[in-house]
Amino acid sequence: MPQLADLLRNGKAVDAHRPWPRVIVTADIWRNVAQQLADGRATLLGEWGDNLPVRAASMAIMGEDTREIAVVTIDCPGGAFPSVGAFHPPAIRLERAIFSLYGLEPTNLPDTRPWLDLGFWDVRYPLGARSAAPAGPTAYAFLPVEGESLHQIPVGPVHAGIIEPGHFRFTAGGETVARLEQRLGYVHKGIESLMAGASIERAAQLAARTSGDSTVAYGIAFAHAVEAALKISTPPRAQYLRALMAELERLANHLGDIGAICNDASFALMHAHCGILRERVLRAADTAFGHRLMMDRTVPGGVTLDLEAAGAASIRDGVQEIRRRFPRLIELYDNTASLQDRTVATGIVTTDLARQFGAGGYIGRASGRNFDARKVPGYAPYDQLDFSVPIFTAGDVDARIWVRIREVEQSLGLIEQILERLPKGAIRAPIAVGKGEGLGIAEGFRGDILCWVRLDGMRVERCHLRDPSWFQWPLLEAAIEGNIVADFPLCNKSFNCSYSGHDL
Amino acid sequence: MRRTLFESLTRRPMTERPPAPDEAALAELAASVDRAARRRLGRSLSIRAVDAGSCNGCELEIHALNNAFYDLERFGLRFVASPRHADVLMVTGPVTKNMREALERTYHATPDPKWVVAIGDCAVDGGLFSGSYAVVGGVNKVVPVDLHIRGCPPSPVQLLAGLLTLLK
User: How far is CA A304 from the centre of its chain?
Assistant: First the structure.
């Protein structure tokens, strides 16, 4: 089996793609790369369609040993390309979406049902050769389940809580789940089509609203991609301020999640106390950056707002309060047997599955996958800061809570270091007008967010955003199998996948 | 656990004074909802939240209404799990084409008299997402809206100020 790097040397490198190479390859090499993904020699980071200058499909991959990143493209003027999903199941939903959005056909794709397109749009293939859609929603066949005394429970798209919409089809035997199948796409807003032709400024706002809970991380991923494409060097102070906002975002989301997971096991006390700490973080963010979720503060070139003394003081106060109160909440979680009874050994994701799907964030790290984009490929200022990436191996709800608990502690340390070492200087570099392609990656609270852009002047020609949830939603289907229906909210909350980020 | 519970008994409540009802929202509501319906409903309201296409930012702030600082339930406002139990539909997002039917069905499942509150800038006219092939637009393109609470996302205080007009 040839090495990945050798394979890619045979392709045609694209000049203006940064910081990692993009190569245009033949169908043979494309299939060969797909086989390497299947063999576990590389991880799939994303796959998307394109129609300029010719119709094409691309995938971003990362070598398993070398951890080197590359984008591999196959031109498909005929409208078809060899399916990666035929070799490597994590690509199946991505390729179903490529077909639904672009009309590009992945040959031999094992599952050809539409994805994201639920039959309500006026157009077919909205990002490809648009044509009028057939009238009325099309029938959608859920996967068959065979066995005695099975029943189905359809849930959603409108769910019982204050959460995003999606459809879950459970097939259960008594209380035990035999199969869960998800059907997503309800909050598809057509972000990629709105991005095409948008100014960089408007595109940054769209990126920041791809998944509201990760608005800072999306802003950073988009900024990384644009800055790479246009060879902009971001001022160090801006990098530190971005990291400060990213860690506040991680802190707020993890605190919210720890409480909410316990709440789904009917342990409201934890929810109430975590809710107070979460609110403290959001208020500190509001004081420091003028917006509770810190939306639109990160832009290509830097950040829009500097940190003043009052903001820094309010963040310090928040950190101190969490340092004072959080240990007792950890103890409360650890010592409440009735709660542990619900979370331990519930909803297990195996290490193999987490590795195969390249699951990021707390889902991968609770199942032994040691990956954090802040470390590898890494980006400033994290290379100058001291922190560790907590890894657990049990893969259950409990492990996903513990990863969050340990990450809260790490984020507190990071925030203190950032405030201490914040460099002086400019917070925003001017954006040059230019052409180019860039790939950006940023570690959100949920995992690694990938952003690929092609720029033409001050406009975005094409932008693809890949939420971490693409490789996490399928694992939820696996995790719930054999568990009882009543444990689904608990498992689902411990995943906390994004609907909006996935549906785009 | 005992220590944490006892401490809550002796510590002053976290809950803060409510904001004054939003004047603009009061005016909009007075124009759209007749007095009789307001008298019937305006003491305690059950709210059903529907995300019709939001980025999830609005949901985060709606959630915050339940935390100890804002404690929405002290006003007799509470979130319920079914539209059949609701007086108020709280709708977020630009309505996506994929969610239009679900929103309509949720609206029809809510018994009369009912109010619809649209939350966030996107819910007004589709916001940043208007013009997309996948987006219908504002909430009032699909169901009649009685009250808009703007913001991206509106803060919990803005949400409270808007919601309290329902009780005036």
Answer: 24
Nearest to B119 by CA among B142, B82, B72, B152: B152
Rama region for A297: left / alpha / beta (φ>0; ψ in -120 to 50; rest): alpha
d(C-alpha A269, C-alpha A40), whole Å:
43
What per-residue confidence (pLDDT) applies to B37?
59
Chain A residue with minimum CA distance to B92: A164
Across the beta sheet with A459-466, what order do the strands follow? A17-18, A434-443, A448-457, A459-466
DSSP percent split of chain A into helix, strand, coil, nearest 5: 45, 20, 35
Q: Helices marked H in B49-140 — which ranges?
A: 57-64, 97-109, 121-125
The H or E element spanning position A191 is: helix A191-195
Query: A298 falls in which pLDDT band (50, 70, 90)?
Result: very high
How is residue A463 written in tokens? 């932008």
Q: Which of A186, A191, A332 sits opposite B98 (nearest CB)?
A: A186
Residue B137 sits at the chain A interface (C-beta within 8 Å):
no
**C-alpha to C-alpha distance for A104 and A29, rounded to whole angstroms:** 19
pLDDT digits (tens, 9 = 90+) for B84-138: 999 999 999 999 999 999 999 999 999 988 999 999 999 999 999 999 999 999 9
Query: Is pLDDT at B5 greater than 90 in this prediction?
Result: no
User: Looking at the DSSP assignment, which residues form a beta bridge with residue B119?
Assistant: B92, B149
Alpha carbon B18 to its chain's center: 16
Residues of B in contact with A328 (CB under 8 A): 3-4
Place of tokens 């230019």: A434
Q: Looking at residue A52, what is its pLDDT?
A: 78
Contact call for residues A200 and A433 (beta carbons, < 8 A): no
For the segment A337-364, the average pLDDT, to the nearest whole number, is 97
What sign for the dihedral angle of Cα A53, A54, A60, A66? Answer: negative
Alpha carbons within 13 angstroms on the beta-carbon side of residue B73 total 7
Of B49, B129, B152, the CB nearest to A189: B129
- B131 → chain A, closest CA residue: A194
**Whole-angstrom distance, CA of residue B43 vs CA of residue B36:** 13
CA distance linking residue A391 with residue A60, whole number of Å: 25
At A176-219, the pLDDT tens digits run 999 999 999 999 999 999 999 999 999 999 999 999 999 999 99
3-state SS class at B154: coil
Nearest-Cα distance to chain A for B121, in Å, is: 12
Please tell me which residue, B19 or A353, carries the higher pLDDT value. Answer: A353
For residue B82, the chain A residue with the least C-alpha distance is A160
Instruction: Find the angle CA(A79)-CA(A84)-CA(A86) to the nearest 5 degrees.
Output: 105
Gap between the Cα atoms of B115 and B159, Å rounded: 15
Q: Which residues on A lie below 8 Å from B132 (Cβ)?
A: 189-191, 193-194
Q: Are B73 and B43 in contact (CB under 8 A)?
A: no
DSSP A91-114: GHHHHHHHHHHH--EEET-S--S-
